[in-house]
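Recall that a protein's primary structure is simply its ordered list of amino acids. Everything else, from secondary elements to tertiary packing, is in principle encoded there. The following example makes that idea concrete.
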Amino acid sequence: MQKGIITIEEMKFYAYHGCFDKEKIVGTPFSVSVVMEYDAEKAMLSDDIKDTLNYQKAYELIAAEMQQTSNLLEHVTKRILDCLYANFEQLLFAKVTVKKIAPPMGGEIACTSCTLER
């Protein structure tokens, strides 16, 4: 087996995750990054997209999860992680980071984030 790593960095979304009413009504910008380790051997030999971990499909799955509202960053991050494992049988390890950009916390904060890996 030949391990490969695909990284998708700083995908931008506008979503409605949060515990406060304002966040659920107005929304906030988010950024999602993923690192996916997978068995790349078949794709290296075939040069066929059906044999790889298709990062376009990964993006679409992540975008769909970001549109489902969660109260907590941990919850949406876990849903993304679970979704990736459910859709990519060759996935060996994944690390997902969800950042809430400029969260409404009463001060100047670049972001808050949650990272989960499995």
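Residues 3-117 form a domain with the GTP Cyclohydrolase I, domain 2 fold (CATH 3.30.1130.10). The mean pLDDT is 95.
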